[in-house]
Amino acid sequence: MSDAAPAPRRVRVHHLRQAKERGEPITMLTAYDAVTAGIFDEAGIDVLLVGDSIGNTMLGYSGTIPVTVEEMIPAVRAVSGAVRRALVVADLPFGSYEASPEQCLATSVRMFKEGGAHAVKLEGGAHLAEHVALLTRSGIPVVGHVGFTPQSENLLGGKRVQGRDDEAAERLVGDALAVAQAGAVAVVLEMVPAAVAVRVSEVLEVPTIGIGAGSDVDGQVLVWTDMAGMTSWSPRFARRFAELGAELRGAAQAYAQAVRGRTFPAAEHSFE
Ligand SMILES: Nc1nc(=O)c2c([nH]1)NC[C@@H]1CN(c3ccc(C(=O)N[C@@H](CCC(=O)O)C(=O)O)cc3)CN21
Ligand SMILES: CC(C)C(=O)C(=O)O
Ligand SMILES: [Mg+2]
């Protein structure tokens, strides 16, 4: 018992604000299952987001719109059960929170009780301030998400950079401020001009987490399959830190060749 590795200190929501004050960038990746969550946790990633990007990455949908709470919860449970240190944030999927603060609270409570989440994330600005405030009063930390919000892709006219002209930039700053003032513990900024992301980061006391928002924000998030080069296409704002897709294909090919050549299984994989 005494030689077991000591449990790492858990990342808590107040650590996010501390990291911003110290100027230490916050690291965040998506995760959708226990295997990858355990690996990212061991790697020291601070925050794991069970994103509704599970729709396009794991479930084979064309985007995030079809994703349901029923599909999210098993993934949230798998990730929260696999981490020792990381903070686990559950995305609220499209249609599960917008209608009212009460609907938002009911869905978030499920993410906590059934999924074991530590925080939830929702897309939107000032119009969701009451939602954020009710969750916060109820003890549920909220991460905001402004700029390009994929759940409203149809209204925004596609996957486009948001906050380009002065008026849109002002609106974006106002939206980020509104969710922060309502109690959000961090705000994701997706696909916004780097200069606008800097302004938001200066105005907010809570950290900004960028994705396609430049380097002068308080943290970064990427979809893990983009970060690891699992698929042939990845968005312009993502760097491929590995080519895991090619690596995995190679492993599958080597396995198939060994089976066909009867070199696997060998004696050590067989029983007397
Ligand atoms: N794999 C994946 N990566 C993501 O970053 C991601 C998801 N899925 N799903 C949820 C949202 C949707 N996001 C996306 C998805 C695609 C583009 C995209 O197609 N970008 C184009 C530029 C489009 C344009 O400028 O018109 C690109 O080439 O990067 C951007 C953001 C970000 N999130
Ligand atoms: C892109 C990130 C921020 C996200 O919301 C997701 O992965 O669903
Ligand atoms: Mg999302």
Automatic annotation (TrEMBL):
CDD domains listed in its UniProt record: KPHMT-like (cd06557)
Cofactor requirement: Mg(2+)
Keyword ATP-binding carried by entry: no
Catalytic activity as recorded in UniProt: (6R)-5,10-methylene-5,6,7,8-tetrahydrofolate + 3-methyl-2-oxobutanoate + H2O = 2-dehydropantoate + (6S)-5,6,7,8-tetrahydrofolate
Principal localisation: cytoplasm
Compartment annotation: Cytoplasm
Pathway stated in the Swiss-Prot or TrEMBL entry: Cofactor biosynthesis; (R)-pantothenate biosynthesis; (R)-pantoate from 3-methyl-2-oxobutanoate: step 1/2
Keywords for the protein's UniProt record, in alphabetical order: Cytoplasm, Magnesium, Metal-binding, Pantothenate biosynthesis, Transferase
Annotated positions binding Mg(2+): D52, D91, E123
A GO term, aspect molecular function: 3-methyl-2-oxobutanoate hydroxymethyltransferase activity
Cofactor note: Binds 1 Mg(2+) ion per subunit.
Family: Belongs to the PanB family.
Self-association state and partner proteins as the record states: Homodecamer; pentamer of dimers.
PANTHER family named in the record: 3-METHYL-2-OXOBUTANOATE HYDROXYMETHYLTRANSFERASE
Role: Catalyzes the reversible reaction in which hydroxymethyl group from 5,10-methylenetetrahydrofolate is transferred onto alpha-ketoisovalerate to form ketopantoate.
Annotated protein name in UniProt: 3-methyl-2-oxobutanoate hydroxymethyltransferase
Upper taxonomic lineage: Bacteria, Bacillati, Actinomycetota, Actinomycetes, Micrococcales
Gene name per UniProt: panB
